[in-house]
């Protein structure tokens, strides 16, 4: 097993190890150490009003830099953290850091925090969020909670209760990766979220023969009918910007507008504040 062979040996990677049971085991062991150490950081990607060019918010994205392996993407370690009960601890760290960082932003600019459905299921979650606002002095209006569309297949009443509690704190809620899951569209209407985030796979299909434009327009109209914002993710080129605008979507996020950017060294308030001010200028 990973443990028996000694973790040191696992610093050398073979591609075929990725997603294998032993790789997950290794990640699990390393995560336990990482959550207690200083290996996580957040990077921030701008969310832009494409009509005015104005940055309206930033999405906080988690990065894990392993001392030996280097950067491990969230797609590899979040599922492991979820499976082995580490996501709440990691999620708390993310929440605190994002709240601290949000204080450097102008009042109207939001910070979006990704929250795992497992965190959301915890009764403690909303209390913890409230405590975080108290501790950091961050205004809840500046925080947007992002939850993937998959949450909509969970117990509807429980999800609605949690959404209501989050909203009553003053935060907004975005449904992430929308358009890829198999959510019950009828059940959307009575959930108090404030934004749909169009998944980047749908943006990528724009302008192709697969008639992606019709799907995007339909989702934009759905957002309108529900009276929520719509934001397109994964926007990579100007053609997509033009097609999205034509479909009625003006909020966008993606490499075309800016890649996720690091904030500076943890604990160093001055260097942390500087890059963000630069970004928001
Ligand atoms: P997501 O929330 O949908 O985040 C968007 C992902 O798309 C990010 O990947 C971002 O770097 C990437 N992206 C942004 N613009 C573009 C683009 O123009 N083209 C392409 N190809 N990709 C783009 P990342 O940072 O690797 O995160 C992957 C996923 O991991 C996130 O998807 C989110 O579900 C999860 N995640 C990230 N941070 C956290 C966190 O703090 N907590 C939790 N629970 N999940 C997180
Ligand atoms: Mg997200
Ligand atoms: Mg997303
Ligand atoms: Mg996505």
From TrEMBL:
Residue ranges constituting the EAL domain according to the UniProt record: 24-274
Keywords assigned by UniProt, alphabetized: Membrane, Transmembrane, Transmembrane helix
Top-level taxon: Bacteria
UniProt keyword Transmembrane helix, yes or no: yes
GO terms, molecular function: cyclic-guanylate-specific phosphodiesterase activity
Name this polypeptide is given: Bifunctional diguanylate cyclase/phosphodiesterase
Shown residues in whole-protein numbering: 232 to 512 of 512
